């Protein structure tokens, strides 16, 4: 049993009139959720398609509201932070966070960065204490598992791969993950989309197999905790 927060970041729909325009990352994420449901009971499933319904960008007024003590915030400031509060509440509930994202220009889509900007908030998901010296930031949540599902037109973004130096999607997600309260990370990637050859087909098949295994592993992990 677990609570799942599923965030899709692709601007493409899951299915389109032209199947070549279908979102690969969303398709794989949907496959993972289906596999997870086969292995364990999901108590609450929270879904955000931020590619289609993007979070607002933070502004100077947003920052002003964040750094105003909660008891002193105006009605307008509470309104400004309402979406952020909702995102954080969803994250706080989740045991498993699933983020699916295509690689855009070697990094994350602007919509996904906007979601992180709304969530990584002082005194909500991290605190700041100069007594910690040169590393004053510390996450306030813990115990969560993150499943990262990515798609890319090229290939070789893994450690030692030919495009490792251009890999700014997963490394960025890993850096930010601690402020989501993540202790365990699984990564699955589909590559070669632009090549549209047998390598892409093989990569998709391998990604689906890996996601099935991860679903089984997570279900077993939850089962052990309940015993």
From TrEMBL:
A Pfam entry, by short name: Flavodoxin_2
Details of cofactor binding: Binds 1 FMN per subunit.
UniProt cofactor(s): FMN
Presence of keyword Flavoprotein: yes
GO molecular function: electron transfer activity; FMN binding; oxidoreductase activity, acting on NAD(P)H as acceptor; oxidoreductase activity, acting on NAD(P)H, quinone or similar compound as acceptor
Catalysed reactions listed for this entry: 2 a quinone + NADH + H(+) = 2 a 1,4-benzosemiquinone + NAD(+); N,N-dimethyl-1,4-phenylenediamine + anthranilate + 2 NAD(+) = 2-(4-dimethylaminophenyl)diazenylbenzoate + 2 NADH + 2 H(+)
EC code(s) of this entry: 1.6.5.-, 1.7.1.17
UniProt key word Transit peptide: no
Similarity remark: Belongs to the azoreductase type 1 family.
Function: Quinone reductase that provides resistance to thiol-specific stress caused by electrophilic quinones. Also exhibits azoreductase activity. Catalyzes the reductive cleavage of the azo bond in aromatic azo compounds to the corresponding amines.
Assembly description: Homodimer.
Protein name (record): FMN dependent NADH:quinone oxidoreductase
Gene name tied to this protein: azoR
